[in-house]
């Protein structure tokens, strides 16, 4: 066990039965007003971004336009209008809020919100196919309904549209925003490649896992948190501070996601029980447990090494009890507790990064803090 790992575990007084509560949430007081405020922020992002998002998707050639509409929840598998779950809309909310942080109107951030949302959904389409996930947002995934080829093509098309939406503004600010989005997208792809490669490695360090998750999740949330400010004319120092907020928020989000990937309620997450264990993901709880040392870590390492020799068909035949036993070893070795602490630490680091934004109104800062609490304190 490394010294830093040991110190975090010794100072963690969190009840590991409650997986993801930030240490000092600033705005999450549980009142109806707090909940309404978050809902209003998310709804504003969703509502302002929707017309441009729909018009961008409508440019796609058939049947890609229909497949994309199904993915976004606008139609069902038979092509009938639907009011599906299009996701939490955190990224659009952040993009609009970042415009206000730079003193611009929230509408200034709409093209950035749409561009980031297009890239995010490009990654979801490809991730679902690569991971073999059959459900997203409590519906069959695109590759399951329309086939793998359409999932790949529509994902590629959404990525192309993202750049189109920004560059159509034809401003110096749009060019700066596009550069940042392109870099974030490349890092996102790097993270996905790392994630896949780690599934086939016997050992992955905590540092490697954090790097992968920073790329896969942190990079795009960082871009979402700064793109509106860039479009609003913010200088690089302001944009970089907002990116730092989003990056660490992404790491907190992913730590929570990793906990839910093992211990989440399928009725809430929309995924199978023990979903990350079924995919042999080297997520933070697993990697932290193995790094902790001790009998439970040793036994877990032996099981995972044996798992790596099996093909996926053999692995799919595992009983619920076998996955539950692995989850119990991860918890006993400290992986669950450490990941909960990491979520809280990254949450705090994200909020501290806002100090680098000069002149931001207190009300806007409070909304950034409220969104951070919302992202970290969740069940699905």
Automatic annotation (TrEMBL):
- Output the CDD domains linked to this UniProt entry: Trans_IPPS_HT (cd00685)
Q: Do you know which SUPFAM superfamilies this protein is assigned to?
A: Terpenoid synthases (SSF48576)
UniProt keyword annotations, A-Z: Magnesium, Metal-binding, Transferase
Identify the stretch(es) annotated as Disordered: 1-32
- GO terms for molecular function, please? metal ion binding; prenyltransferase activity
Family affiliation: Belongs to the FPP/GGPP synthase family.
What is the recorded name of this protein?
Dimethylallyltranstransferase
